[in-house]
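The passage that follows is intended for readers who have already worked through the single-chain material. We present the inputs for a multi-component assembly, then the predicted structure in tokenized form, and finally a short commentary. You are encouraged to pause after the input and sketch how you expect the pieces to fit together before reading on.
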Amino acid sequence: MSDALVELLQHLVNGLSVGTIYALIALGYTMVYGVLKLINFAHGDVYMVGAYAGFYLADLLTPGGRAAGDGAAGAMLRALVVTAGAMAICGLLGYLIERLAYRPLRGQARITSLITAIGVSFLLEYGFQLQPWGFMPIPFPPGPSPRFFPELVRRADWSLGGVSISNYDVIGLAVALALMLGLQFVVFRTRFGTAMRAVSFDPQVAGLMGIPVNRIISWTFVLGSALAAAAAILNAVPRPQINPLFGLMPGLKAFVAAVLGGIGSVPGAMVGGLVLGLAEEFVAAYTLSSLKDAIAFTVLILVLLFRPEGLFGRVTVEKV
Amino acid sequence: MGRAVSLARSLLPFLVALPFLWALQRWSPPYPTLVLRYVGINIVLAVSLNVVNGFTGQFSLGHAGFMSVGAYATAKTMLALADVQLAFLPEPASDAVLFGFALLVGMAAASVAGLLVGLPSLRLRGDYLAIVTLGFGEIIRSVIQATPPAFLGASLGLSGLPLRTTLIWVGLGAVAVVVMARRLALSTQGRALFAIREDEVAAEAMGVDTTGYKVRAFVISAAFAGLAGGLIAHSVGAIEPTSFDFKRSMEAVVMVVLGGLGSITGSVVAATVLTVGLELLREFQDYRMVAYALMLVVLMLARPQGLFGTAELWDLWRRKRPAASAASAGPPGGAA
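Having made your guess, compare it with the prediction:
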């Protein structure tokens, strides 16, 4: 293969690997927006908490960090336990955020919920930046300095005709795809998914039809937050530096991905995430790398200008 | 109301404030002066943000971004004019005129940035504005860091700025922003903004050009954020890209929300109380942002309209009289 082609394919691999992370986070935004019409500002921070939950869990399972000695199967098992644990913790966090901060304000002016969401987001970001409290069994809160996420699975790099692919890329892509397909199944093939879509369509009528609206909304938060935790682990293993503001940028970018795909649309969030990841990678590779962060917002502004309903969204008319 | 009367109403506060400010500047000891300067700058920030978040009901999280634009534009102008002296004026007067000019440049630059950010995002419902403005603050920072060091100093920022920000300048800025907000609230423009806040669809149905008014409010607000930025730059003497981060936007938001969305005096009181309070509580610096965040959440749960709601300080007394109590139930500004 020619060098230019190899380089192109390499960027494609990198872009997809970042894009799946955005897609997984974007799913949480889009589901919550779908049922509540609320931008859950704290979602990026739930993602951050997911990374820390994984960090602490891995530390508890193997004190000392690296998985030295134990075999590939043991490492895999540990990675699974850590991921599942982080997803459970974040699911609980998502449930609590909805129950304590958003539910009491449902039905009030939208700006009230928005301010609360921002408040929750800052509470997580700055709460995690505090120095550890003495009475906690683990060093929590972690404080502002970055931590290094343990290597859950040993890295292996393969070269396919010059394109280097690591097992992280493969695992990340596979897990993300599996989760997305699982979500697609839940949303379109189960009773819960039907109820969720009904609530998204019209919460009041859904309630009249006997759908437990509150429970559906709670579970939507749990699902979205668990996906964010999975994304956090998938991202933290290959790029191990985590800090309390670690969720800010991915959160914003995933929001852009959700808007790009059409906020409220599940397949839209996946496509939006992948497109954004690829766009960032290619712009950074072929123009200035310092423009990488600006790309997402340029995309957002362009989408808002030319196709505010996003790629897969429906045009909705706000009625009185 | 005739044009002359309205002009007098706009100018009178400045004439009243000037002697006070001059006296404060002349006799106040250094430390209180410093605190008062920050109080004044925060009043400019909070009241200008209130025009967008309170009057119009939109939600901007990027006030620090506009401060940054204003600060850099002002500082750059001042550095460019460092050796200039207006020949027909004595030196202090010339300095004052040049600084005033630089502040105006900062305001203009910030308002242009406001237009660029506001135009696409304000066409849609408010939620998008929050994200776009949040992103804008981050972009401004990375753009400044990416510029050649000779121009905006990249990561190191600009230093050696003349310390021209006196209590008089800050005080005039604060008076200007309050007069602007008050005049705006009483004008047709202001009524349109309140209508948008109360119900955007209904306002549009009544023939209010919602996007136009929102963008205008946003640009005005950005301009005053730029003024605050310019004042800070020449108060500290050095600016760097990180001096206008998220925390500053957040502080402004907390002041507006605490004081009451839509209440000018509420913003002034909240800005004063928070600034002085933080000075007194310096040793708990770490917990400050956590306290802000908690305050936002608890306030929204307990009293979503903020401490003052949309009422002004003087409304609180007026409301006690039984005759006025019926009027006070109406929408804000209904008492005028």
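Commentary: Chain B has one domain: 3-328. The first helix of chain B runs from residue 3 to 27. How closely did your sketch match?
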